[in-house]
């Protein structure tokens, strides 16, 4: 190691430096279901099963204390 | 029919879905088919820096000192095969590690057939694994009770 005007370490001082890096991007394939824009706004009228039938969602606040039956959501936009 | 009164939709549900849930990437009935396809994140960054100085005090005494600093950062979706969140924070898991070590070594030569060696090293590892950004209080942001406070 030799630094002009500062240090003369010829044949006495040695300097070693190493840097290594790994960059690994391995995204995975993803397929899933997310709510549609209508569903996010509460509109589940497009929630159909494989027979094209509507899958009804029920209002938990209408649960009958005896039968535990609930009423379907039936909000109608005015 | 099958429509929820908008006034009854939880502000938390509205906020959180707009905050980090992607819109469908294709038209499909969610009950029947997947309506979102894409790539989930998994990125790793590793690095190591090493510095070493050797010095020969005399022909009989040689010394070296080494310093090594290594880092590991990985970010990925904590739940594979879930839709990556829009804010790139929720559900994203971080694994950060830093490894630092120093070593010194001294060799003293008595004769061509006899020498002694002193070697000493010290290493420190720090690791942090978390979800979110590690700073934000999501309970506060979403207005949820936080038992840790």
Tell me what you see in this structure.
- The complex is a heterodimer of chains A (78) and B (149).
- Chain A is mainly beta.
- In chain A, 5% of the residues lie in helices and 33% in strands.
- Chain A is rod-shaped and about 95 Å long.
- The model of chain A has no long low-confidence stretch (mean pLDDT 90).
- Chain B has 149 residues and is mostly beta strands.
- Chain B has a domain at 37-135.
- Helices cover 10% and strands 52% of the residues of chain B.
- Chain B has helices spanning 11-20, 138-142; strands at 36-40, 42-58, 61-77, 92-111, 114-131.
- In chain B, strands 2-3-4-5 form a 4-stranded antiparallel sheet, with no helix packed on it.
- The radius of gyration of chain B is 28 Å and the shape is elongated.
- The mean pLDDT of chain B is 89.
- Chains A and B meet through strand 3, strand 4 and helix 1 of A and helix 1, strand 1 and strand 2 of B.
- Strand 4 of chain A pairs antiparallel with strand 1 of chain B, so a sheet runs across the interface.
What's the structural blueprint in terms of helices and strands?
The complex is a heterodimer of chains A (78) and B (149).
Chain A: E1 2-3, E2 7-8, E3 13-25, E4 28-32, H1 37-40, E5 58-59, E6 71-72
Antiparallel strand pairs in A: 1-2, 5-6
Chain B: H1 11-20, E1 36-40, E2 42-58, E3 61-77, E4 92-111, E5 114-131, H2 138-142
Antiparallel strand pairs in B: 2-3, 3-4, 4-5
């Amino acid at each position: 190691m030799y630094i002009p005007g500062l240090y003369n370490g010829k044949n006495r001082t040695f300097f070693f430096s190493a840097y290594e890096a790994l960059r690994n991007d391995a995204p995975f394939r993803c397929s899933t279901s997310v709510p549609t824009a209508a569903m996010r706004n509460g509109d589940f009228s497009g929630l159909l099963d494989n027979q094209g039938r509507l899958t009804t969602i029920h209002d938990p606040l209408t649960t009958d204390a005896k039968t535990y039956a609930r009423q379907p959501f039936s909000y109608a936009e005015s | 029919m099958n429509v929820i009164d908008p006034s009854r939709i939880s502000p938390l549900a509205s906020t959180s879905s707009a905050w980090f849930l992607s819109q469908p990437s294709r038209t499909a009935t969610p009950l029947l088919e997947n309506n979102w396809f894409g790539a989930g994140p998994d990125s790793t960054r590793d690095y190591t820096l090493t510095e070493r100085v050797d010095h020969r005090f005399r022909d009989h005494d040689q010394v070296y000192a080494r310093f090594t600093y290594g880092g590991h950062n990985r970010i990925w979706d904590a739940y594979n095969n879930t839709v990556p969140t829009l804010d790139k924070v929720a559900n994203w898991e971080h694994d950060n590690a830093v490894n630092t070590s120093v070593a010194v070594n001294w060799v003293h030569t008595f004769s061509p057939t006899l020498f002694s060696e002193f070697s000493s090293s010290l290493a420190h590892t720090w690791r942090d694994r978390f979800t979110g950004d590690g700073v934000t209080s999501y309970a506060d942001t979403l207005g949820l009770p936080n038992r840790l406070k």
